[in-house]
Amino acid sequence: MAGRRKEPKTDFAALPTEADNPRSEFLDTLPADEVVKLLVDEEANAVKAVKACADRISKGAQLIADTLTKGGRMIYVGAGTSGRLGNLDAAECVPTFGVPPSLFEAIVAGGSRALVKAVEGAEDDTREAEQRMRRISTGPKDVVICIAASGVTPFVRAALEYAHSRKAATIFITCGRTVTYDDGTPIADVVIELATGPEVISGSTRLKAGTATKVTLNALSTTAFVLLGKTYGGLMVDVRPTNIKLWARATRIVQRLTGLQEAEALALIKKAGGRAKVALVMHHAHVNPVRAKELLVQHRGSLRAIVGDLQAQPRG
């Protein structure tokens, strides 16, 4: 892409994600129970690293919520484990929060085949990154979430730069030191640097870095959708019941917030077109499905804004 900004040459040996972990110096001599204990102890450090970035993550979540409110999309970009985690988060938000798949794009270096097997060299292909971003018409309404454990993955950095050129909002998640442009230009609107430290197996970022990234993505998307009214307390009121388990969950939610019996709650949800939140508005506001949907639009999807504070019934 014309006008690419220069980045300092990468010293891969100096990357935190490539460092040796002194705790695993004799890893291959340990019995199974000690290997497991070491791995689990180190994974706990990954969560600590996420906690240390809570302020940055909350800022990113607010940026996502603001973007979606204005009609934008969430675009995840990553290579290898980072790309797979981005795809996972995008896929799981749809049924959890009852949002359309069109709100999400998930780009992994190497394409869909890279979701199930390694595609050698894909993470270095900057041209593919730019082409993929162009193909989905990345623009100023979108928020692009770039994930690079090392912080220097060429595919991800090229996608990030393309997002900047298209005036998209940007979030950069890394477990390494953030490389800056030579001109000092900020790398992203929100940068989340997860200080996970060296892996038990040096360079294997599917371990602590992967865990920290997964927790961070969970926190970003979940917080954003909570801000957008997709929950009521800790209840998944916007769940779309697409299987037996989810129908049972939706029914329990309606029961807990109405006091109805199971059969009554199920019938109400069906009358609401399979939407628990619509059913709850119908019940508490004493309106038909059409009016319930209108009220939700007027109140930006917030159930609490319509029905107030409800006393949830204890689980049966």
What is the secondary structure topology, with strand pairs?
Blueprint: H1 32-51, H2 54-69, E1 74-78, H3 81-97, E2 104-108, H4 126-135, E3 143-148, H5 154-165, E4 169-174, E5 190-193, H6 208-227, H7 244-258, H8 262-271, H9 276-285, H10 289-298, H11 303-307
Helix pairs in contact: 1-6, 2-6, 3-6, 4-5, 7-8, 7-9, 8-9, 9-10
Write a brief structural summary.
This protein is α/β, with parallel strands linked by helices and 316 residues long. Strand 3, helix 5 and strand 4 form a beta-alpha-beta unit.
Question: How would you describe what is shown here?
Answer:
The mean pLDDT is 91. Helix content is 46%, strand content 8%. The chain has 316 residues and is of the alpha/beta class. It has two domains: 12-227, Glucose-6-phosphate isomerase like protein, domain 1 (Rossmann fold, 3-Layer(aba) Sandwich), CATH 3.40.50.10490; 244-307, Helicase, Ruva Protein, domain 3, CATH 1.10.8. The protein contains eleven helices and five strands. Strands 2-1-3-4-5 form a five-stranded parallel β-sheet, sandwiched between helices.
